[in-house]
Amino acid sequence: MTIAPPTRQPTDPGYPIECQVALEAGVRALCDEAGVAGWSQPAVFRALAQLVERQARDYVEDPDPAESSSEIAPINLTDLS
């Protein structure tokens, strides 16, 4: 999978949308592949949301991703901006 690099600065209001567009095809392919493997789409979406929350929390706590938490806890994703 190839992800297009940003063409905008992080402070540009369009930056988050551009990031979504860059990631969309890969996320869709991942969801489709999980469905083909037999996972229900609701289960895939819940799992992805939990994984993203965990990674976001870990990043907020320590931007060095060398270590990862094993627990899943809610996070306010607006804390990342």
Task: Give your account of this protein's structure.
The chain is an all-alpha fold. It is built from 2 helices and no strands. The protein is globular and about 40 Å long. It has helices at 15-36, 41-61. The protein has one domain. The model has no long low-confidence stretch (mean pLDDT 86).
Biggest β-sheet strands, sense, barrel? none
SSE order, as H and E? HH
Beta strands, count: 0
The proportion of residues forming helix, as a percent range, comes to 40-55%
Give the amount of beta strand, in percent: under 5%
Our measurement of the CA-to-CA distance between the termini, rounded to an integer number of angstroms, reads: 26 Å
Helix/strand/pairing class, anyone? mainly alpha
| Outline type | globular
Summarize the structure.
This protein is an all-alpha fold.
Strands, helices and their partners?
Elements: H1 15-36, H2 41-61
Q: Which short descriptors sum up this protein?
A:
81 residues, mainly alpha, 2 helices, globular
